[in-house]
Amino acid sequence: MRVLITGGAGFVGSHLADACLLRGDEVYVLDDLSTGSIDNIEYLKRHPYFHYTIGRVQNASVTAELVDRVDMVYHLAAEVGVRRVIDSPISTIENNVQATEVVFGAAAKKGKRVLFTSTSEVYGLSTDLPYREEGNIVMGAASKGRWSYACSKALDEFLALAYYNERQLPVTVVRLFNTVGPRQTGHYGMVVPSLVQQAMTGKPMTVYGDGSQSRCFGFVKDVVRALVALMERPEAAGEIYNIGASTEISILDLAKRVKEIAKSTSPIVLVPYADAYDAGYQDMPRRIPDTTKLRSLVGFAPATDIDEIIDSVMKSFLARQERSAQRTPISLRTPVRVA
Questions:
Q1: Is the pTM of this model over 0.85?
Q2: Catalytic residue among 52, 149, 208, 277
Q3: Of 19, 82, 88, 253, which is most buried with the most CB atoms under 10 A?
């Protein structure tokens, strides 16, 4: 198959490109590198079935041309990270909604299959756990900037299902829960790579609030396997699926595991949300997916535990540091603690 991955130079997108190429697919990537990195796809440039375009999905002519070339589209391009969402709410809303509209419009004209990646953030303040796809969305106040991301992705979901019902676009929506693994960075508030970097460089390991908030961390390769499996099932069109792990861990316990695995001497420091973000910042105490629907259709089951995930992120961090050191003059290099 020929596939287009928007946001294909990003963390999840680059792993998806790997998986598709291994299947024998011809892969086209469109990414503006606002949060993705050319380093994530550098080694793929030599592959005869890999093509990439640096540009914005909102450029309708570029996107339409790429959609015309392929059989299916994985639409992953979006703003990511709590820090970025809070600092840039306008671009969060505009980029998420406008880019998705362009992709759906181009795909609908040609009847191309689309998989759209949404987020567990759309469940908002709901306490009806575990989260089920048909459950109610309970959004926070409009005055709280962090909910702009959730609202923009929820609007994208409504748009996806509208295109499915009104224009027969074969589109599937997936809600990703805390996906982590190699190539993910802590630049935009991603907790696992942030803790790993702090632990391995001897810096204080920052945990926001009291650390009791818990999440279920899914390994990126497990998530990508589910994305590909859904694209193979025509009956998934017009449906929403949760994708994530089911094992909870508190952020404080996560920090302790990272510290232990890294054999780090870094102290774990609790930081009030108001100091990290803004006054009145809202966070969910728990976020747990119900993946029964996904498992029933494609037999999905997470295969990677939290210790394996942490180890993979550590190895990725060391590899990134090594690449950076090779590009840096010797006189400017600083030592990195290796466990």
A1: yes
A2: 149
A3: 82
